[in-house]
Amino acid sequence: MSRRFASLAKRHGLDVEALEIEGNHGSHVRWSMMQSIAFFQKAGSENRSERTGEIASLPVSAELDLGDGVNMKVVRIEQGTFRMGSPPDESGHKSDEALHDEVIAKPYCLGVYEVTQAQYRQVMGLKPSFFSAKGDGWDKVFGLNTDDFPVERVSWEDALDFCRIVSMLPDVRDKGWVVDLPTESEWEYACRAGTETPVQTGKELSSQQANFNGNNPYGPGAKGVFLNRTTRVGSFSANAWGLFDMQGNVLEWCKDAYDSSYRTSENKPGHDRVTRGGFWLSDGTRCRAACRQQVSPSTRASGVGFRVVLRSIAR
User: Fold this and answer.
1) pLDDT digits (tens, 9 = 90+) for 79-125
2) 3-state DSSP call for residue 197?
3) What letter does residue 36 receive in the DSSP assignment?
4) Closest to 253 (Cα-Cα) out of 220, 280, 276
5) Who's near 98: CB < 8 A, 6+ residues apart?
6) Among 43, 148, 156, 205, which one has the highest count of C-beta atoms within 10 angstroms of its own C-beta?
7) Is 125 helix (H, G, I), strand (E, B) or coil?
8) What is the 3-state secondary structure (H, E, C) of 203-250?
9) Distances from the Cα of 224 to the Cαs of 68, 202, 234, in angstroms?
10) Do the beta carbons of residue 295 and residue 278 sit within 8 Å?
């Protein structure tokens, strides 16, 4: 009934959302407040004034305290230049991966792991994931604790709402930092970690190195296990910059609107967005560092999650 009222209100020009919040008549209050904060932050974002005062330097590494003992690790990525995209002779190369020089002008911090189900529930009060005890894919994870599995079935806007709320935490806000989704260039730069090969392991990828469809490895990699589901973040080796699951497990939302030539405006409303990294059902080709996936921002799928970037507001 609430969703029907929200739909009617939207047709009359009102900005309204209806969400199902976990809990009973007492325990839902905290989560409802968080969702309300995110909604009004989003509505007022264009009129928000810039913070004044001293801005703290981004840390080499940090654990953001989300409350109740739930933390989120980030690591600093220094500025630099790299070759973005892929050469025409790279196996799996697509026309929207034109090779070009890209500059990362300022340092930023990136999540060491994809955002987990426990972290998302702590901030948003929701458990949307397909691969969870109450999700539609419960049989795939029966008997497993999925708290440290990546959250999925979150839209681009859901991911931004998460970022907006975490940005309000005193340890973030008072230091002049903001939590956001990474841009495409920030994501690929961190994924490559100084390499120019198709994947972080070189020119081949097997399911012993990342969570994807092991029946279809990349390059001459051997066939391997196909879990047919997500798995705990950090189950495979990190790349050279200490980042886990940059390839496989879940696709990760980027801030940018999709454009085949990379010339985008992140503020195009309703425009398709970019996801990166491949996911548990992907073949190895889609796990390449340069591979781009064009996805509607409203998509909530079992293969789509995200990781966060922490940056100074004085970009």
Assistant:
1) 999 999 999 999 999 999 999 999 999 999 999 999 999 999 999 99
2) coil
3) H
4) 276
5) 85, 261, 262
6) 205
7) coil
8) CCECCCCCCCCCCCCECCCCCCCCCCCCCCCCCCCCCCCCCCCCCCCC
9) 38, 18, 18
10) no
